[in-house]
Design goal:
This protein is α/β, with parallel strands linked by helices. The chain has helices at about 15-30, 45-50, 60, 100, 120-125, 140-155, 175-185, 195-200, 205-210, 215-230, 240-245, and strands at about 1-5, 35, 75, 80, 110, 130-135, 160-165, 185-190. It is built from eleven helices and eight strands. Helix 1 crosses helix 10 (about 215-230). It is globular. The structure holds adenosine-5'-diphosphate (ADP) and magnesium ion.
Length: about 250
């Protein structure tokens, strides 16, 4: 098993969207994973995927009321998720032993974390074998990403990659070279700005499964292939397929 921590400096850059779609893309290659909602203050994987809120949560695992395996929600689209409690009183759960519970799981574990540099983020970084820092191609997001990269490096994490999300390839955004130079960390993926992401979220499904020919889907598939060291050939005639696809 291997634990990937998905972190960011700034909120709203796309960590939850990324975590869900990375899991979906890994699944397309036959790789099982479990997404864990570690954003205790603003848990929103359950909202993105439409998981009923009476389901068992990470908090019950941390307080040793249930075994970690029993807290997994099996989503109809084939994803496995450990949601976080929506109750405010559970937002203070102690994450310091997180890794101990997660190592009982199989496959890849994806930790969707809160933004910033707080104690819970440190616990996420501590628990992770590799770290993905999500940012947008804007100076404010990259400046905040730098801080979390520094924190990860201070914690002796050596497997850190940056994902630039919401890439439009226009002149108003920072390009990959500029971001790589600022972060002094390799860029592992660029995920396109994609209007289907909002539609998929509204329908509680990952864009990777809803729109197989969409711009961001192809980006997620490339990244999953790269992480698994597998080959990926995007479908032929992508532009034509997009045009003819009923789901946009
Ligand atoms: N590549 C993208 N293209 C378009 N919209 C996106 C993309 N990634 C994320 N979003 C949108 O940005 C918003 C924030 O994403 P979210 O995953 O909740 O961020 P975070 O978990 O970092 O707070 C959501 O409304 C989501 O639909
Ligand atoms: Mg989130």
């Amino acid at each position: 098993m291997s634990i990937i921590g998905v972190v960011s400096g700034k909120g709203g850059v796309g960590k939850t969207t990324f975590s869900i779609n990375l899991a979906a893309a890994l699944k397309e290659f036959g790789q099982e994973s479990v997404i864990v909602d570690v954003d205790l203050n603003n848990p929103n994987i359950a909202l993105h995927l439409g998981i009923p809120n009476m389901h068992l949560t990470l908090q019950e695992v941390l307080s040793e009321e249930v075994k970690v395996h029993h807290s997994i929600f099996h989503h109809p689209v084939g994803l496995k998720v450990i949601p976080s409690s929506l109750s405010m009183s559970n937002a203070t759960a102690d994450l310091s032993n997180l890794r101990k519970y997660l190592t009982q799981l199989e496959g890849i574990v994806i930790l969707d974390s809160p933004p910033g540099l707080n104690e819970n983020v440190i616990s996420v970084l501590d628990a992770s074998d590799s770290v993905i820092v999500v940012t947008n191609p804007e100076i404010s997001a990259v400046t905040d990403a730098l801080k979390v990269i520094k924190l990860a490096k201070d914690l002796r994490k050596d497997n850190i990659g940056v994902v630039i999300n919401r890439v439009r390839n226009d002149v108003y955004e920072l390009n990959s070279d500029e971001i790589e130079l600022m972060c002094e960390t390799p860029i592992v993926s660029r995920i396109s700005e994609d209007s289907n992401i909002r539609k998929a979220s509204f329908e509680n499904v990952p864009v990777v499964l809803r729109n197989p020919y969409s711009l961001s889907t192809v980006d997620f598939m490339y990244l999953a292939a790269r992480l698994l060291r597998k080959e990926y050939e995007p479908p032929n005639f992508l532009a034509l397929r997009r045009l003819l696809s009923f789901r946009g």
